[in-house]
Amino acid sequence: MSIRDDLPERASGPPDGLHAVELCLGYHGRPVVRSASIQLAPGIVTVLVGPNGSGKSTLLRGLARLHRPTDGTVSFADGSPALDLSPQRFARRVTLLAQSRPVPSGVTVRDVVGYGRHPYRGRWRSGDPDGPRAIGFAMDVTGVAGMADRGVDELSGGELQRVWLASCLAQDTRILLLDEPTTFLDLRYQVEILDLVRDLADEHGVAVGVVLHDLDQAAGIADRIVLLQDGQVQGAGTPAEVLTEEALTRAYGIPIEVTVDPVTGRPRTRPVGRHTHRVGRVPKEHHRNAAAERAAAPA
C-alpha cells in the first residue's frame, strides 16, 4: 500500500506544537536530562538521536508529562503551560507511543486501537462521533485492518507494535511523540511507518517528535535533529548541520564517517570499527578445498 496516496482524511484542527525550555529531568535525585530546550513545530519532524543513556526517551517522556521536570517549562504553541491541563484535555492535544506497552489478553486489535479514543469518550464510551472514522484511518494506514478481529495476544512483536501505533493515531492529536517506533518491525514496515510520519507532518501539519537509533533513518526523515549526549543537547538543526563526523564521533565514542547521499543530498553515516574497511577475503579453507577439487578433476 502506498501510504501517501491512500492517506484518509483526518479531523481538522488548529496547528499545535510543544516548546520545552531549560528542561531538567531525573530519577531518584540523579539528573538524566540537563537544561534541554527543544521545539516541536507544526508540520515539522524533529528526531532525537544519541547514544544509549543520553536522555532521549526521558526527554520525550517529559514532553508527554509522564515524567515531571525538576526545572524548566513545557508549553504549547499558543504559550499555555502544558502542565496546567487536565489529563483528558492534554491527551486530546498530545499522544505518545512509548517503547514498551503491555500485551492485553482477551481483546481484539480493533479494541486496542479504540483505546486511543479514550480522551473523547464519556463514562459509558459514548459521545465520540468521530471515533469510527479515526479508528478506520489508524488501522488502514498502519496495515492492521485485515487483522481487526484477531486477538492481540496472537500477534508477533512487529504486528503488536503496529497495533499500538494505530492506537496512537486514533487519538487524532496535532502533536505526536514516538519513542523508537520502528523497533521489532521488518524492513518494509520500518519504511512505511517512517513514510507515514512524514505524511502526517507534510499533509496534516502534525508536529512530530521521534526518537530513532538509526542515524540514516533519522537523516532521511527529519526536518530537524536534536543530538543528545550525557543528558545535554549537543546540537540542534538540520541533518546536515548536526550529523557531522566531529559531533557524532564525540557523542558516540567511536569514529563515524559521514558522506552525502548522491540521490537525496542528505548525510549518510558509517561507524568505523576495526574491520569496517576490510576488503572481501576468501577463507583459507576455501582455497584448500578449491585446490583439492582441481587436483582430483580428470585431465
Class computed from helices, strands and strand pairing:
alpha/beta
Run of helices and strands: EEEHEHEHHHEHEHEEHHEEH
Give a short account of the largest sheet: 6 strands, mixed
Distance between the termini: 57 Å
Number of strands: 11
User: What's the overall geometry?
Assistant: globular
* Strand neighbour order, sheet with most strands: 5-6-7-3-8-9
Helix content: 25-40%
State mean pLDDT (0 to 100 scale).
Answer: 88
Runs with pLDDT <50, length 5+?
1-8
Alpha carbon gyration radius: 23 Å
Total count of helical runs of at least 4 residues: 10
Structure keywords:
six-stranded mixed β-sheet, ABC transporter ATP-binding protein, disordered N terminus, AAA+_ATPase, globular, iron, 299 residues, transport, three-stranded antiparallel β-sheet, cell membrane, alpha/beta
Topology of this structure?
Elements: E1 18-27, E2 30-40, E3 45-49, H1 56-63, E4 71-76, H2 87-91, E5 94-97, H3 109-114, H4 131-142, H5 157-170, E6 175-179, H6 187-204, E7 207-211, H7 215-221, E8 224-229, E9 232-237, H8 239-242, H9 245-252, E10 256-260, E11 267-271, H10 284-296
Parallel strand pairs: 3-7, 3-8, 5-6, 6-7
Antiparallel strand pairs: 1-2, 1-4, 8-9, 10-11
Helix pairs in contact: 4-5
Keywords: ATP-binding, Cell membrane, Ion transport, Iron, Iron transport, Membrane, Nucleotide-binding, Transport
Membrane topology: Peripheral membrane protein
Subcellular location: Cell membrane
